# Entry
Amino acid sequence: QEQLVESGGGVVQPGGSLRLSCAASGFTFSRYDMHWVRQAPGKGLEWVTFIRNDGGNKYYIDSVRGRFTISRDNSKSALYLQINSLRVDDTAVYYCAKWTGYPGGFDVWGQGTMVTVSS
Amino acid sequence: DIQMTQSPSTLSASVGDRVTITCRASQSIRSWLAWYQQRPGRAPKVLIYQASTLETGVPSRFSGSGSGTEFTLTISSLQPDDFATYYCQQYSSYWTFGQGTKVEI
# Structure
């Protein structure tokens, strides 16, 4: 079945960096646009970033632009999120999600990986 | 940026109740709206897309309606598994989630 598995989360000091990974299986990864969505503890969902299926277009929420970089390796069916200059308010569970494209929604989600920014 | 506002933030209900959640967009998003269910400690799950299309495998007690700026998610007869938090999401211009509606007993 279609599956996404995130990894790479952890505890990091403010100003630090992490690289999150998302391994896809059960579908042709290169055909689909992908997203990262985050959820701070006890809070709602926040869309973070998008990458087109071929790695072309990339979009970011304003609060992470210039600090986060989304990328993918279609040969490895893998999605990445490089997060730099981490701030306390970046603390969240980070989910990768597959988008079917219009007209659909995000139909496959990973289990999430926790990023904690604390001194 | 398009803002999404859900109401209510919390909803108390009983098994068998009919439940309606409203989502308003700050500008027209046509029908580019999805609804998600999230149970505690779990990833979200898409229920409805394009405002009213039921995702494959989702029970028919869930339905969505609306277009433009006002949308509703209705659960016709609340089941024990339905106690969860529900989010709307617009995808007309980038992507934005509502703040969520917690359906509790």
